[in-house]
Amino acid sequence: MRTIPRALLIGGLLVLLVLLVLASLSAGKVWIPWSDWFGAADDMRSMIIFDLRLPRTVLGIIVGVGLGISGAAMQGYTRNPLADPGILGVSSMAAFGAVATLYLGAASSMPWLLPAGAMIGAVGGIAMLLVLSGATSSVLTFILAGMILNTVATAGVSLALNLAPTPWAVNEIIHWLLGSLADRSVDEVRMALPFVLIGSALVLTLARPLDALTLGETGARSLGIDLTRTRWILAFGVGLAVGASVAVTGMIGFVGLVTPHLLRPFVSARPGALLVPSALAGAVIVLAGDVIVRILPSTVELKLSVAMAAVGAPFFLALLINLRRKAA
Known about the structure:
Layout: H1 6-26, H2 44-78, H3 90-104, H4 106-109, H5 113-133, H6 139-162, H7 167-177, H8 186-204, H9 207-212, H10 216-222, H11 227-249, H12 255-263, H13 275-295, H14 304-327
Helix pairs in contact: 1-2, 1-13, 2-8, 2-11, 2-12, 2-13, 3-5, 3-6, 3-7, 3-11, 5-6, 5-11, 8-11, 12-13
């Protein structure tokens, strides 16, 4: 596929994002046309838009940006197009922190403890990842440390489900693990926004190291790239962005995995040039998925993570078939 100018690609994604924001504010069980957006302050439609849908839309953009840019960074760093932000284990640690508050029943009396527990789990996961991987480890060792952390955190979540004291606790844990933007408010936006912004800003500083790593670790060092510093920045950047996203929405998969695949042909497969477009495309994908789950004709709103998996699985099936054709 032929590459297109980066400015044109970013501009097209911004236009698409604006259109999806408008659709997100209008769509739902109650469809509100644009002409009714700015009614009286006590108008029920205005309350639906500005108190319910606007925070949900903003949060969808924040989460999409964090997951999209993290996925592009991880695939560039590992030089593996199948790498996912969750490969570091930070998202699983964030989930474990949130599940622990549900298991102990603390989140029912103090709801703010759930996202706080998730962020504590994410930060703890970053620290453990850096300790396990060591100061001078290779990319392979770094990824293996993340896989170990991911396995331990997943086992902790499974143990909490197995030993949950009441069926209510089990339902709460499963309900939260199935990520969604439903019933989110300005509080979740305030909690996620600073961490995702800081994490994304850290990841953006890695454009040149990620491009250099396409030559391998030896080639990157010959170009003056400090791989240890790159690894630390990557861990903190991805950890903060993904951890904050998991803290406020639960686990939403496939966004960080699919997004870079869709855009890579347009940027000459350069990892550094893929970061900003992937951030915008991640927001587009999350918002589009959220609009779809809201307008589906069902009595219970479908979880966003389920919708993402329904799209992601066929995508990778098509990718597998394409790779087999090329190898034949």
